[in-house]
Amino acid sequence: MNKRLINPVATLLYAILFLVACQKKDARAGIPGTGSVIRFTSAVDDKAVTKANGNTWDTNDSIGVFMNAAPGGANLAANKRYTTTGDGNFTAQGGNALSYPEDGSSVNFSAYYPYQPALAGSIYKINLANQSNPQVIDLMYSSNATNFSKASTANPSLNFEHQLARVTLTVQSGNGAALDGLDAVFQSLNTQADFNLASGSLSAGTAAADVPANVTISGATQTVTAILLPLADAAGKKVRFTLPSGSTYTWTFPAGAKFEKGKSYNYTITLQNATSSRLLMDMNYEDGMLNGGIPDIGVTNATAADAAYLVSPGATGNYAIAHKIVYGDSGYYSDGSWRSESATAAYKPNGRFAPGDVRRYEFSVYLKDWTPWVTEPIHETNIFQLKVSGNAETNSGVPLQMRVARNALRLRYVDNERVYNFLSDVRPYYNQWIHFRIDVKWTARTDLTGYIKTYMKLPGENNFKLVDERTNYGTFAGDPSIGNIGYIKWGLYGLQEGLTRIVYHDDIRIYKLN
Question: What pTM was computed for the model?
Answer without folding.
Answer: 0.53
